[in-house]
Amino acid sequence: MAAIVRSQIAARILSASCVVSSSRRAGVRAATRQWLPNRTLLSPINTKGFRTSPTSYEKRYTKDHEWIELSDDKAHGTMGITHYAASALGDVVYVELPTLDLEVSAGDTIGAVESVKSASDIMTPVTGKIIATNEKLEEKPGTINKGPEGEGWIARIQIGDAKEIEDLMGLDEYRKHTEE
Fold first, then answer.
1. Residues 6 or more apart in contact with residue 121 via CB below 8 angstroms
2. What is the pLDDT of residues 143-154, one digit of tens each?
3. Of 152, 95, 147, 100, which Cα lies nearest the Cα of 121?
4. Residue 38: which residues within 8 A CB-CB, separation 6 or more?
5. C-beta separation of 110 from 130 below 8 A
6. In 41-130, alpha helices (H)
7. Which whole number is the average pLDDT over 119-136?
8. Which of 31, 93, 116, 135 is most buried, judging by how many CB atoms fall within 10 Å of its CB?
9. In angstroms, rounded to a whole number, what is the distance separating the alpha carbons of residues 111 and 133?
10. Residue 162 has pLDDT above 50, yes or no
11. Distance (Å, rounded) from C-alpha 171 to C-alpha 68?
12. Interatomic CA distance for residues 45 and 108, integer angstroms
């Protein structure tokens, strides 16, 4: 009897049209599934505390390979170096973090990243005030290599001039820039 039930379940699964949605954020992998009466597999909105508005994931890029991800209110941003910069640097061995409460202008040097190959300055993409740094990078600078646009963020900034964000590149424009 159990073998018949298992084969019926397997047949249903094989005949169903499935759409699976997985999301990956900060090293956490979540896959959620929900069966509907018509056997279509759909993913509900992720409810684990991640932001879901499209503007919350808006990243902007500089020509010097820094990025900034804006908060929902566009008053704060998280910044770091891009995947492109991290791969060009190689294995990161030291990160000089910016000073808290430092007032900066767009393009100011706020720190440095050193690798076995070379060293590079970190420049702020916008004017503002440094409100947080990623202390984890002092102990584990290689975190930048594992996730430069996620877990390897460098600083958070209170944005002083929101108009400067418009001068930065979007993802498509940045990709074209790196292909040149």
1. 109, 111, 112
2. 999 999 999 999
3. 95
4. none
5. yes
6. 83-89
7. 96
8. 93
9. 11
10. yes
11. 11
12. 39
